[in-house]
Write a sequence for this structure.
């Protein structure tokens, strides 16, 4: 089964943040991504939960 790949814009919409925030996360290795042409693609299955990114420690 092939992974679902998301664009920076799609990930930004999921996390409800600016696309530059997602690019910074990629640049600092907080988010794994691959470069395809001039686009970054992120495996949807590897995304952290948005609550983890916000520092929320509740389960």
């Amino acid at each position: 089964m092939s992974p679902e790949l998301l664009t920076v814009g799609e990930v930004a919409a999921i996390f409800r943040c600016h696309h530059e925030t997602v690019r910074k996360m990629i640049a600092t290795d907080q988010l794994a991504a691959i470069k395809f042409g001039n686009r970054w693609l992120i495996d949807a299955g590897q995304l952290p939960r948005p609550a983890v990114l916000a520092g929320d420690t509740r389960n």
User: Anything to note?
Assistant: DSSP finds three helices and three strands in the chain. The CA atoms of residues 51 and 58 lie 8 Å apart.
